[in-house]
């Protein structure tokens, strides 16, 4: 289905952008062929690995695919906007305006430059973002408690071992009390990603490293990945919880499996099981990969939910579309029926569309504060 959907931007660009240009037919055909290959990036990925989610090409080639594919999508949007303006002018002036070639060249260069910049922002090691979140009923012993949230690592050929090693080094240098990873660790099988995920064993914090699965773990041998990640020293909270103590004070950290589990034989998303037996007076921090069921968590008495999945929407404009698919939650801090929800932009993102324009990736240090 992907190769049919992404053939549409190619068709727009060929018919409305390339065809009117004063180029030799042979040049037009070559450019159209290159863009056609780029438009079929996901189909080619499936041929290379059996999955559109795990391109198994050299990293420079994946970066090139993303730049050209991104430029194609952006150029199609620009062209459609130009056509819309032309139709308005047609209605006002009675004739379709002539578009000079230089205007198309500017559009093409802008699309390519924006795409290259967007990919560079997507593949970098994220900058650190710090936020304070006030929690009602937080014991004074946990006022100032610091969590580091990582999410949507998507370790793959695009985000390989070297990138993971740099993320781990930067994470550990922050000295957080607790590290949590809210899913989508990988794109690929255990055999393909074994070396790339190895640096995660180096993550360390005073109160440990806890994690939950994301939807992408279910695409690639869920049970094997849960065993492998546990073997790296990550404590997986799959519909379970742990209690963090400071003297007599307690903070509950709970985690649930992803909603995608319903389409597999894996344990389904079960908030009630995750909270069963938790200390009744301890505030609950819930790890849930997708933010869309935040209202349910609020009704269950959760104080803070940490999620990812949306990648923040990746680009200004596209974030509104992503928000609609996630009950309005896409990036940043929300208050949901008295509960705090933080939706992380992501440490990385899916290598199938690795662009960030105006919505940066992040290593997120969250400091808990007592709410007056």
Largest sheet: 6 strands, mixed
**Name of the CATH architecture of the largest domain:** 4-Layer Sandwich
The figure for the number of domains is: 2
Rough outline: elongated
Low-confidence stretches: none
Structural class: alpha/beta
At the third CATH level, what is the topology name of the largest domain? Answer: Purple Acid Phosphatase, chain A, domain 2
According to CATH, the homologous superfamily of the largest domain is: Metallo-dependent phosphatases
Percent in strands: 15-25%
How would you characterize the overall build of this protein?
It is a single chain. The chain folds into two domains: 2-123, no CATH class; 128-370, Purple Acid Phosphatase, chain A, domain 2. The protein has twelve helices and twelve strands. It has helices at residues 2-5, 7-18, 25-39, 41-49, 59-93, 101-123, 161-173, 190-197, 222-231, 271-275, 294-299, 318-324; strands spanning 128-135, 146-150, 178-182, 209-212, 235-236, 240-246, 249-255, 284-287, 304-307, 332-336, 339-343, 363-370. It has a six-stranded mixed beta sheet with strand order 1-12-2-3-4-5, covered by helices on one side. Strand 3, helix 8 (190-197) and strand 4 (209-212) form a beta-alpha-beta unit. Helix 2 (7-18) packs antiparallel against helix 3 (25-39) and helix 2 packs across helix 5 (59-93). The longest helix has 35 residues, at 59-93. It starts with a helix and ends with a strand. The model has no long low-confidence stretch (mean pLDDT 96).
């Amino acid at each position: 289905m992907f190769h049919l959907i992404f053939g549409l931007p190619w068709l727009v660009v060929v018919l409305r952008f390339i065809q009117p240009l004063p180029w030799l037919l042979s040049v037009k055909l070559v450019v159209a062929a290159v863009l056609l290959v780029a438009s079929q990036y996901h189909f080619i990925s499936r041929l290379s690995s059996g999955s559109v989610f795990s391109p198994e090409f050299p990293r420079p080639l994946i970066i090139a695919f993303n730049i050209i594919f991104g430029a194609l999508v952006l150029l199609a949007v620009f062209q459609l906007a130009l056509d819309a303006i032309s139709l308005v002018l047609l209605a006002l002036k009675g004739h379709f305006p002539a578009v000079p070639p230089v205007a198309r060249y500017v559009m093409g260069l802008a699309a390519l430059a924006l795409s290259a910049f967007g990919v560079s922002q997507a593949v970098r090691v994220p900058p650190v973002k710090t936020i304070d979140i006030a929690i009602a009923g937080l014991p004074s012993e946990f006022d100032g408690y610091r969590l580091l949230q990582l999410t949507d690592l998507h370790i793959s050929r695009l985000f390989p071992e070297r990138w993971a090693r740099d993320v781990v080094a930067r994470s550990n240098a922050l000295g957080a009390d607790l590290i949590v990873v809210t899913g989508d660790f990988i794109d690929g099988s255990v055999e393909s990603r074994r070396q790339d995920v190895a640096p995660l064993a180096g993550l360390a914090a005073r109160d440990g490293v806890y994690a939950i699965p994301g939807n992408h773990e279910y695409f690639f041998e869920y049970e094997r990945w849960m065993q492998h990640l546990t073997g790296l020293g990550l404590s997986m909270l799959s519909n379970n919880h742990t209690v963090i103590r400071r003297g007599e004070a307690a903070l509950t950290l709970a985690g649930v499996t992803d909603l995608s589990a319903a389409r597999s034989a894996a344990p389904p998303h079960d908030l009630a099981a995750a909270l069963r037996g938790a200390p009744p007076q301890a505030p609950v921090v819930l790890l849930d990969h997708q933010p869309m069921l935040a209202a349910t968590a609020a009704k269950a008495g959760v104080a803070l939910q940490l999620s990812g999945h949306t990648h923040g929407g990746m680009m200004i404009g596209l974030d509104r579309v992503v928000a609609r698919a996630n009950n309005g939650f896409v990036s940043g801090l929300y208050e949901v029926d008295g509960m705090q929800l933080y939706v992380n932009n992501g440490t990385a993102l899916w290598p199938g569309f690795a662009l960030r324009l105006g919505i940066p990736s992040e290593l997120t240090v969250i400091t808990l504060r007592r709410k007056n």
